[in-house]
Structures are given as structure tokens and as C-alpha cells.
Write a structure and sequence with these properties.
Blueprint (H helix, E strand, L loop, with lengths): L17 H4 L8 H14 L3 H6 L11 H5 L4 E13 L2 E12 L2 E13 L5 E5 L1
Length: 125
């Protein structure tokens, strides 16, 4: 895949989100994790990665198979802001999608925690 990454970073997928999704690198910033998780949802088939980067109690009951399915078409991601202090971080974003022919938008400020050498994980939605 040589075109721009689906997360909107203007980098190629191989330079941007692919190393995280294929677990060759760990996210060292909340924004890296947010972008790679968005790409994982948009591409589908990445349930293992999504589950691994989610705080376990928040993901209770979800399976990699469920998380790998695409129930909507993701149209774009816009990161509004991000930051970190110590082991805590956040990302505010808007993600647009289309489901059953109807466009929608998810606006969220997500919290992240740095977990040792495992990189950041999504803590609160």
C-alpha cells in the first residue's frame, strides 16, 4: 500500500500506521495510537490489534472477530488536539463515517496511559 495512510497524516501507510497495526512498533504518543486505531477500524480485520491497545476492563466481552468487522465506512479523521504529561495522554478527534447510506460523525476526547514498553493503550472512551 503506497498511498496516503487512511488516518489522514499525509504519510504512506507503511510509514505511518502499518508498523503499529502489524505490531512491529509501539505507539510512543497518544496521537500515534489514536491514528493507528482509526486506521485499524477503517481497514477492518485488525481486531487483535484493537483489543491489545484497549484497557482490558473497557473491552470486556469484545472479541477480535467482532472488532475486525466493518459495520460502517470510515470517511476521515481530524485530530483537533493531543497532549501528554507523564504516563497520561489525550487526543480529541472527529471521525466521519457512513452507515447504511447515512453520514455521521464521532467527536471524542479519549484518554490514554503509557504502559511500560507496551506503549500507549486506550483507557477511557
Amino acid at each position: 500500500m503506497n498511498n496516503c495512510c487512511v488516518c489522514g497524516s499525509q504519510q504512506t501507510f507503511a510509514q505511518c500506521c502499518e508498523p503499529f497495526i502489524k505490531q512491529r512498533k509501539v505507539a510512543t504518543t497518544p496521537e500515534q495510537l489514536m491514528r493507528s486505531r482509526y486506521s485499524a477500524y477503517a481497514l477492518g480485520g485488525c481486531g487483535e490489534y484493537l483489543l491489545k491497545t484497549w484497557f482490558a476492563p473497557m473491552a470486556r466481552g469484545l472479541t477480535p472477530k467482532e472488532l475486525s468487522e466493518t459495520s460502517q465506512e470510515w470517511l476521515g479523521l481530524r485530530v483537533i488536539g493531543s497532549g501528554s504529561s507523564g504516563n497520561e495522554g489525550w487526543v480529541e478527534f472527529r471521525a466521519s463515517y457512513k452507515r447504511d447510506g447515512v453520514k455521521g460523525e464521532l467527536h471524542e476526547r479519549s484518554a490514554f496511559t503509557l504502559v511500560g514498553r507496551d506503549g500507549y493503550i486506550l483507557v477511557v472512551k
